[in-house]
Amino acid sequence: MTHFDDDDAPASAGHPAEDGSHHKKHEKVDRPRIEAAVREILLAIGEDPDRSGLVDTPRRVAKAYAEVFSGLHHDPADVLSTKFDLDHEELVLVKDIPFYSTCEHHLVPFHGVAHVGYIPSHDGKVTGLSKLARLVDIYARRPQVQERLTTQIVEAMVSHLKPRGAIVVVECEHMCMSMRGVRKPGAKTVTSAVRGQLHDPATRAEAMSLILGR
Ligand SMILES: Nc1nc2c(ncn2[C@@H]2O[C@H](COP(=O)(O)OP(=O)(O)OP(=O)(O)O)[C@@H](O)[C@H]2O)c(=O)[nH]1
Ligand SMILES: [Zn+2]
Where is Zn(2+) bound in this sequence (predicted)? Predict the structure, then answer.
């Protein structure tokens, strides 16, 4: 699993949430405030927030929001600090990383897969493969738009891995385009971001053929 929530911080050095006692002390999400707001929304749509099926809903939504927005309180530097000296200087690509994010315009989900690749720096040091998936979750678990998600992932790799090149391709279905509004279920949005040597046409073509080869 690549996911973590407010009770499951990324396994990385020095994060204060690792000792298991962090839960209340370090929680940055104001759950009572979310609960009050959800109760207001239920009233506003004409529901009875005190009926038995809804009475625990504000608490559940607050707990769910703490999880789906937990990326706001995690630092990609922590995740990408895990490095191995494998003397590998060629492309490393983790493809088809599934993730869920939340559209910041409508606060409904968008979800899909991310493909994340880089050409390591000249020192041949690489990061852990799972860390690339954790990086995706750190940025997905925030109010987002797909373009910024894509850019943030590639920029974090550039900053913390100092790669010779990096590429991120993200393919998503946006629930705000499926279940409401324009109502086009199945429509996919594809975004990409490329840095450094991955701009080279041959290198980029190699990465893209690996990404697209299903
Ligand atoms: N660029 C971009 N747009 C997004 C993303 N997620 C949702 N949107 C779009 O945000 C736009 C918001 O448009 P508005 O006209 O302000 O809101 P709206 O009336 O709800 O629009 P409709 O969704 O067309 O009904 C819509 O076109 C959405 O499709 C995203 O990740 N990136
Ligand atoms: Zn939306």
Answer: 103, 106, 176
